[in-house]
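Here is an idea for our session: we take a single protein and study its fold together. Once you have written the record down, we can walk along the chain together.
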Amino acid sequence: MAESGLAMWPSLLLLLLLPGPLPIAGTEDAAFPHLGESSQPLLRACPLRCSCPRVDTVDCDGLDLRVFPDNITRAAQHLSLQNNQLQELPYNELSRLSGLRTLNLHNNLISSEALSGPSVSAPVPPCRGSGCQPSDGDLPPHLWGEAGTQVRVPPQQPAEQRWPAPRRLPRLRGHRHPQPLQQPAQLPAAQPAALTRAAPPAGSPANNLISKVPRGALSRQTQLRELYLQHNQLTDSGLDATTFSKLHSLEYLDLSHNQLTTVPAGLPRTLAILHLGRNRIRQVEAARLHGARGLRYLLLQHNQLGSSGLPAGALRPLRGLHTLHLYGNGLDRVPPALPRRLRALVLPHNHVAALGARDLVATPGLTELNLAYNRLASARVHHRAFRRLRALRSLDLAGNQLTRLPMGLPTGLRTLQLQRNQLRMLEPEPLAGLDQLRELSLAHNRLRVGDIGPGTWHELQALQMLDLSHNELSFVPPDLPEALEELHLEGNRIGHVGPEAFLSTPHLRALFLRANRLHMTSIAAEAFLGLPNLRVVDTAGNPEQVLIWLPPTTPRGPRAGGP
């Protein structure tokens, strides 16, 4: 098959296949290096109804265009045609715009046929001379994140959370173009992303109509680092083993929101982030991942992975995998033989019902484990299930069927999420040794004050946030951790707050007592003495407006709390 006309622009940042802008934070100067500099009034022609704020920028966004605009200056480097009704790409016009660096065709009616283009008989000559652009992918060093950068995945559900980004991966936090080329921010916003969001914002239309990438269409884009093909109609037959094989610099590939049933073949070794969320993938085969040995993030949320979706050895080629995102599949157990260097396993909204003693021994370096909204019951969580996870810092077990705290929790935990279970008691033993824990959520359980054993909070010396909201507490639990700064007690049955309620928490900053059974004089006048840092007392939603006596560091006297 003839090679695509796309080959005429090897340095073009390929956005014409994409539904949205390049989602990298802090790249305003990268995508638009001219911005921020002074400019003289433009004495040149501009396409009808479009705007041309800079000599190299043409904005034809949202004009309901059905044909490609004419009279575009040859000096154009940045051309936005998003939110129109274009169906074809006139290669005779595009080939004239040899200086294009970004071409945005987000939300048009472009089909696969529009990508085929005319054939070319000779390779594109290499760029030489002072006017050439760098050949290292055209992304300056400041686009790259430092170790520890937070990447977020799309916040479509509470359980899709964050993980630390490894060195030299793009900061996928959310990209904005400066005026006038306004484009929607791509990321929460995972989306990794933090992937923040690798998919378009919620509510975006199914942007283009691409069901196939013609053979050779990407053969000359050897400097391409990010390629976004999400929200199209791609099927397995629309991609072949050569589709991505020439992209020797590719690091981010987004194929989410398509109709793929398998992982694409021919993935390049340089690939660091592969987003396959919201497809129809039923099984992951190791053979499809052999080429992508450098993969750090694999996002497979909202597919159709069942009990055999990730067989033992499927991920063996990915020895450096940092994050595995499996949100919203049908997995009934933790996948076996995971890569040993895995740091984040994101597995909420599946069907996992048990944790055995050896289910997590293959991943001793995990720092984040998210098993929220599965089917875990206390009787089926082995007391040694977490024993190898000495590096674990965040554990999310929210939305399961636990009736008591798990035993053997890693002592290095910083965050523990146990809300929306069926906890009926708290005992000191499971919390023993958690002297680095900073956040503990026990909201939406069935706890009463009498169910909290003496000394339960004793070893939680670093605890700053405690959420006991929506339980069955009738008064403030005693002997709370000294370091506590934020205490959530809303939605309980508290009818009285005595003068000794907060003697153990001198650093308290925020107290939430909303929707309890408090009346005007339910809170003792001395209750907040000795709390110089107290800034928030929320008593809204109680039967009466509550009288609150402020600490002596503020103007003395009572104030009414409430809505």
